[in-house]
Amino acid sequence: MSISGKADIAIAGGGLSGALIAYRLRLTRPDVSVVLVEQGPSLGGNHTWSFHGADVRAQTYQWLSAFIVHCWPRQSVRFPEYERVLETSYCSITSSRLHEVVAPMLGDRLILNAPVETIAADRITLGNGDAIEAKAVIDARGAKQSKHLALGFQKFVGQEIEFSGPHGIEAPVIMDATVPQEDGYRFLYILPFTANTALVEDTRYADGDALDRGALRRGIEDYCGSRGWKIAKILREEEGVLPIALAGDIDAFLGETEKGVAQAGMRAALFHPLTGYSLPDAAALAELIASQQDLSGASLARFTRGHAASIWKQRSFYRLLCRMLFTAAAPAQRYKVLQRFYRLPQPLIERFYAGATHLGDQARILAGKPPVPVGRALGCLSEGQYLKSAMKA
Ligand SMILES: Cc1cc2nc3c(=O)[nH]c(=O)nc-3n(C[C@H](O)[C@H](O)[C@H](O)COP(=O)(O)OP(=O)(O)OC[C@H]3O[C@@H](n4cnc5c(N)ncnc54)[C@H](O)[C@@H]3O)c2cc1C
Question: Which end of the chain, C or N, has fewer beta carbons within 10 A?
Answer without folding.
Answer: C
